[in-house]
Amino acid sequence: MMRLYYTLILLFAVLAVTSCKKFLDVAPADRTGSSSFWQTREDVESAVINCYGFVFEKFNDFNSPVIPAVGDMRCGGIGGVVGAGQLGLGFKTISNNDLSNTTDLNVPERYNLVDIDDWAPYFESIANCNITLSEIEKMEALTDDEKNRYEAEVKFVRAFTYFYICRLYGDVPFYTEPYDKTPRPRTSFVTIFNTLIAELDAVKDDLPWTPSNTSDLGVRANRASIYTLIAHLNMWVAGFDKANQNKYWQDAAQKCLAVKNSGEFELLPLEETKRIFKGKTKESIFEFELNRNYGNTSRYVNLGQWMTHSPIVNYGANSDLFFSRELMERIYPPDKPDKRRDIWFYLPYVNNQTFMFLKQINVADPAGDWIFEDNLMIFRYADVLLLGAEAFANLNNNTEAISMLNMVRERAGANLFAAGAENLSDAIFWERQKELIGEGHRWYDFVRTGRVLDPNQALTYLTQEEFDRGAWTWPIDAKARINNPEIVLNLYWVR
């Protein structure tokens, strides 16, 4: 951790240029590393934008498929190429939740799955946020309202980074002060999440529901993204702090309802799927932007990039990977209507590599390599509605739960929920599986609801003993202990 702080200021402009090309008017490195940098509102704007850049740099790593590997592949049901040295073998190993040695998965070097073990880039993001918050507080060029808005935005980015890494690794060191070089042990993520919920609650209304600049829609924090993150924090910790579940469910339910009642968001027709996942729509709550015009595209950030072939991309007649028939029939029963199955998939039950996943197919150059520019969706309005439905159902408020669930089903052309015909909690869970497939939520939904322990629901299931020993987490690279001997690795994955 210590060396991160010595280089952090110099990294501000560098990472902004490489990972947030949209925001080109950033201060050069020699200014951001000097005491004269923090002078104007424009300096603050550049620094705040860089907060997003740090974490996105990890997500959009051209060396490693972070989001697809950790969010969807671990759930099982991944088929694909299995020849020696092919990526399908490694990803199918992940699909069986075998992460015991992510340096030895027989995948091409360019996929670098071991990079996911390295949590240092996330702590760079957190340290950057801590420094930015400290400097904003001292800025005389800002009004109090401007300070409040910028601080709320940076606190969202910091809280989101902790939210992400705690779901990935479990307990982590907790840093909130600038230039803190203390080697800290791992703090319980329940404690961290409760701290973050309180912090975000204090600033949640300092941002508008939607930005005044439409080009910032979805890609910069707003009131809805803060409310949604608070709801997700609550729903995650409720799965582990069971003695206080009702408190978490109540807060999550009210936050999701507030987003719904704001009137600022809507579900777009599924026929407009390409526009939805290109981003910046009324369905967007928070996303990271990918755009070739800003030199910013991706090979690995979305799962669909391994599940398409000609004529979508110039990549032959087969996809590298596919969802198995067993998984597809479980999520989308063939005898039930669902426009998501019909629009998002080609040959959904074929069980071979002629299958295609068409949810994320904004291709930068269809005649060339498989470079995509679908925005990386973090939170969508459909996610908010289903998370709220789940919270209300847990509180036995079935009226509101069914209303939110049916908003999503109606858009999908699916059968509406009728009391007595289905178990409500199960219906909401599987609706999230249908709606959010490929967006990095599926594994985490199985873990936080405990369904990962049920072999009748999870293709890649865990025993209680495996779960308790940390099989739901990702391995942590041993180099995390070089500058912090207080760190204990995730021992389930240590051979």
From TrEMBL:
<dbReference type="Pfam" id="PF07980">
    <property type="entry name" value="SusD_RagB"/>
</dbReference>
<feature type="domain" description="SusD-like N-terminal">
    <location>
        <begin position="111"/>
        <end position="232"/>
    </location>
</feature>
<keyword id="KW-0732">Signal</keyword>
<dbReference type="Pfam" id="PF14322">
    <property type="entry name" value="SusD-like_3"/>
</dbReference>
<dbReference type="InterPro" id="IPR012944">
    <property type="entry name" value="SusD_RagB_dom"/>
</dbReference>
<feature type="domain" description="RagB/SusD">
    <location>
        <begin position="352"/>
        <end position="493"/>
    </location>
</feature>
<dbReference type="InterPro" id="IPR011990">
    <property type="entry name" value="TPR-like_helical_dom_sf"/>
</dbReference>
<protein>
    <submittedName>
        <fullName>RagB/SusD family nutrient uptake outer membrane protein</fullName>
    </submittedName>
</protein>
<keyword id="KW-0472">Membrane</keyword>
<dbReference type="InterPro" id="IPR033985">
    <property type="entry name" value="SusD-like_N"/>
</dbReference>
<comment type="similarity">
    <text>Belongs to the SusD family.</text>
</comment>
<keyword id="KW-0998">Cell outer membrane</keyword>
